[in-house]
Specification:
With about 280 residues, chain A is mostly helical. Helices cover about 70% and strands about 0% of the residues of chain A. Classes of the chains: A mainly alpha (about 280), B mainly alpha (about 300).
């Protein structure tokens, strides 16, 4: 009887695993097949595999399109880098304040930052477009980055605060008593301890900006095209090109993959604004 | 004596430093109020680029908006969308987290596979799923036909379009839930579980009486943050259906975008923005407060 129970548990586990794998992977499977199928020879039934393989779509997406996938990834990376740099500077300083602030009003400040995350970005898309149009920021890398910055500040500040919280304040107090100035305390004593926090904040702000679609769509016209806009642009009213889209979508994973591997230890912490330990 | 004095002096200077260090983030966040004010100003005007009108009409846009059934429906749809996505991704994510937490052979590889959907940019995930749902080339119809049923044009029928997008959102966001819940599970204290096991509790009882109560704070955080993120949903819907067919899958954000940038009706779009923004903000704050009262550490 116990023997059957063990077998039953094993089988159940295997079924669960198979279901999980199929659920997570099947869109990737069709995407991959579509990227190597000859032009117009998309599979029409479940197990049909294209008879011939081509890399035409890779060639097209890598070299021949007006804005190649590399260029749009580069654009996205530039935008995300500018955003990250600004947000990082701001959150290293403000995160410190919010962590060390023992006065009333800290809770309200944290809540206000969370409130910014609750506002749907769409509601100021028109004014942003109008203002940026006036000051010639539409269709520029700096413009898109500027639109991303305020929305990324809450994540940055919440995350940095969470990391500062892990450093006991006694450390600083000891340094002050020994005569160190406040800036020196921050730079020489605290900073080395929260370098992982800076890394994680960098990664998550970067991803937030890299993934962003709404403002990229509103503010980029034809000079700059971010990856998020480029990939969605393969399927419009006028043309549908699933095969080239598949190639672009797979390539766009690379920066994400690198960053997530770098911060894998802190993924959950980063994704909950630092509210989780670990 | 001197030490104590030095310390209190520093504390005072510290307060000043703290306030100065807050200024940059306050300033940058405060920048958002400029476009917000501008949006309100726009919303009081008959401002339509298509017809070239631009004049002051006070609250006419708002009057129109409350009679606009499409907008009212999109609020309802937004609520359904958010609720379904949050609940489903939570349940699936929890199931996956419990599965990986068993730590069988190869669970590390499964862990990586489960996270894969998270790698896609949302707009790319939406486009891929548009392909997945395609009537003749999409794998969904291939699977259905394999089992002998008839496929459908999921994204071009008003009855299924919204739910097709909801499934995409669930697929793309379950890894996030999974990751947060798994990390919560792995940070749980060992002792209560061990002692309950010694007392002979079944695995169902273990989950019901030990794991679940201990995991509650993490669950609350996960659900609240997921709610906040999903209520603003735009990417998947816009990429996959554009709010169609016939406006049957518009959410608040997509309906605002459609009116603002497709119809070029800046005045009406701005009025929609103000009311839609308030609706979403209020629901998110309510969710936050409910869970906060239940003891969420956020």
């Amino acid at each position: 009887m116990i023997f059957f129970k063990i077998i039953f548990k094993r089988v159940l586990l295997i079924i669960c695993i198979v279901v999980v794998i199929l659920w997570s992977l099947f869109p990737f499977y069709t995407t991959f097949i579509a990227s190597i199928a000859p032009h117009g020879n998309l599979p029409t039934s479940l197990f049909s595999i294209p008879e011939k393989l081509t890399f035409d779509f890779y060639k097209q997406v890598f070299f021949q399109e007006r804005v190649t996938v590399w260029r749009s990834i580069g654009t996205s990376i530039l935008i995300a880098s500018i955003t990250t740099l600004v947000v990082l500077l701001v959150s290293i300083t403000s995160g410190y304040s919010l962590s060390r602030w023992r006065l009333r009003g800290r809770g309200i400040m944290m809540f206000l930052l969370l409130l910014i995350r609750m506002i749907p970005p769409i509601i100021i898309a028109i004014p942003i477009f109008q203002i940026f149009n006036k000051i010639n920021l539409v269709d520029t890398i700096f413009g898109v980055a500027l639109a991303h910055i305020p929305w990324c500040i809450p994540i940055g500040v919440w995350l940095m605060k969470a990391f500062y919280d892990t450093v006991p304040i006694e450390l600083e107090e000891a340094a002050w008593v020994d005569g160190a100035s406040i800036p020196r305390t921050i730079f020489n004593i605290i900073m080395p301890l929260i370098m992982p926090g800076v890394g994680v904040t960098t990664a998550f702000v970067f991803l937030e900006s890299y993934n962003e679609y709404l403002y990229a769509l509103t503010l980029s016209r034809n000079k700059i095209i971010t990856v998020s806009v480029k990939i969605a642009g393969y399927t419009t009213m006028h043309k549908v090109d699933f095969q080239a889209m598949s190639v672009s979508a797979m390539i766009s994973i690379i920066p994400m993959l690198i960053i997530l591997i770098l911060v894998r230890k802190y993924l959950a912490k980063g994704m909950t604004l630092g509210a989780l330990k670990g | 004596m001197i030490r104590a004095k030095k310390k209190s002096n520093l504390k005072k200077r510290m307060q000043k430093v703290i306030i100065v260090l807050l200024i940059p983030s306050l300033f940058l966040s405060f920048l958002l109020t400029i476009p917000l004010g501008y949006a309100f100003y726009n919303s009081l005007r008959d401002y339509n680029l298509k017809f070239g009108t631009n004049k002051f009409i006070l609250f006419e846009n708002y009057k129109e908006l409350f009679l606009d059934t499409n907008f009212i429906y999109s609020i309802g749809r937004n609520l359904i969308y958010t609720t379904l996505v949050v609940i489903a991704s939570f349940l699936i994510g929890l199931a996956m987290a419990l599965l990986i937490d068993i730590k069988f052979k190869g669970s590390g590889i499964i862990y990586g596979i489960v996270l894969l959907p998270m790698l896609l940019i949302p707009s790319a995930a939406g486009t891929i799923w548009k392909f997945v749902y395609h009537p003749s080339f999409g794998i969904i119809n291939h699977i259905i036909k394999f089992f002998g049923f008839k496929g459908s044009a999921w994204l071009s029928l008003p009855d299924t379009a919204l739910f097709a997008v909801i499934i995409t959102d669930i697929w793309a966001w379950t890894p996030w839930m999974f990751l947060v819940l798994l990390s919560g599970l792995q940070n749980l204290p060992e002792e209560p579980l061990e002692s309950a096991k010694i007392d002979g509790a079944s695995s169902l009882q273990l989950f019901r009486y030990i794991t679940f109560p201990l995991l509650k704070p993490v669950i609350f955080i996960a659900i609240t943050l997921k709610w906040i993120a999903t209520s603003k949903a735009f990417d998947y819907t816009w990429v996959m259906t554009g709010g169609g067919p016939g406006g049957s899958s518009h959410l608040i954000s997509t309906y605002i975008y459609y009116n603002s940038f497709n119809q070029l009706n800046y005045g009406y779009g701005s009025a929609l923005s103000i009311i839609g923004g308030i609706v979403l903000l209020v629901t998110s704050v309510i969710i936050l407060l409910i869970f906060k009262r239940k003891g969420m550490p956020l």
